[in-house]
Amino acid sequence: MIISSSINGVEVFKCGTEVEGRVLYWTHFYCYRGLVFDCGCPNIAGEVAAALRETKGVLVTHYHEDHVGAAPILKTRGARVFASEKTIPLLQTPPQIPQYRKVVWGQPEPVEAEPLDKSFSLGEVDVEVVETPGHTFDHVSFLVDGFLFSGDLAISNKQVVWMREEEVNETIRSLEDIMKLDFEMAFGGPGPMTRRDVEAYLIYLKGLKEQVEEMHREGLSVSEIVERLFPNPPQVALIMEFVSEKEWARENMVKSLLGIPRTP
Question: Three-state SS across 134-160?
Fold first, then answer.
């Protein structure tokens, strides 16, 4: 399913896999001046391609399946696909994802991509590429005409579960770097956000970091810190922890901030 809207000239596409009339989990991709920023999930790649009228290029923020799904079909239609040098090998040979993610998003198909420069022009559009690791090691964001296309860099100050691979200290540094840039709106996977929303997320993460480090100094274990920080997590968070076998979990954030390895 795809729901489209427009904000300040940016086409916003909210999309996800529909099962029995219900979308399991939403993500967003965007089109601005003929450039597509991320491109939805594999399960709805055909719908994504049909929704995009003119595509000069596809710019990928990171390798996750809910951001690269329609890249292969868009490339066959003549669109150029761009990604960071760290991302390209994972687009050429996508890793096998767990079954629950195949249901929610779909297994990505291979696609060849062109490497990104730090800044470049595509048509008449000037693009600045900003390295923003944290959510993934390969994550980048794009600054175009004062709009930030931010992938999964900024989520929400209500976030309670993190992926196992996330490096939250790096996310904080990336957000601090982003806040030095001139933008008023960020367009990412969770949806459009104001600059103030992005700053609020940074403040939220820094607050969690301070609390985690303080409780660690007091001698609390990871599980005790988790329970102290999130004593009444929403049901959806507990379901995600169970279904994903803690690939998504509260403890991932705590361990990441403390430099503790996260293993399946």
Answer: CCCCCCEEEEECCEEEEECCCCCCCCC
CB 94 within 8 A of CB 107: yes
pLDDT band at 21 (very low <50, low <70, confident <90, very high): confident
Nearest in space to 97 (alpha carbons), one of 57, 42, 172: 42
Tokens 């089109």 locate to 31
Superfamily grouping for domain 2-206: Ribonuclease Z/Hydroxyacylglutathione hydrolase-like (3.60.15.10)
| Angstrom distances, CA of residue 250 to CA of 64, 100, 254 | 20, 18, 7
Residues recorded for the chain: 264
Cβ-count burial of 186 within 10 angstroms (0-12 exposed, 13-18 middle, 19+ buried)? buried
Q: Report residue 126 as tokens.
A: 């000037």
Domain boundaries, given as residue ranges, for the chain: 2-206
User: Residue 125 class from Cβ within 10 Å (0-12 exposed, 13-18 middle, 19+ buried)?
Assistant: middle
3-state secondary structure of 264: coil
For residue 31, give the nearest of 49, 11, 14, 47 by alpha carbon: 11
Amino acid at 118: K
pLDDT digits (tens, 9 = 90+) for 153-207: 999 999 999 999 999 999 999 999 999 999 999 999 999 999 999 999 999 999 9
Q: Are 71 and 77 in contact, with CB atoms under 8 Å apart?
A: no
User: What is the identity of the amino acid at 248?
Assistant: W
Task: State residue 123's pLDDT score.
Answer: 85
Identity of residue 242: F
Q: What angle do CA 161, 155, 80 make, to 5 degrees?
A: 115
What is the three-class DSSP state of 175? helix
Let me know: does 129 contact 119? Beta carbons within 8 Å: yes
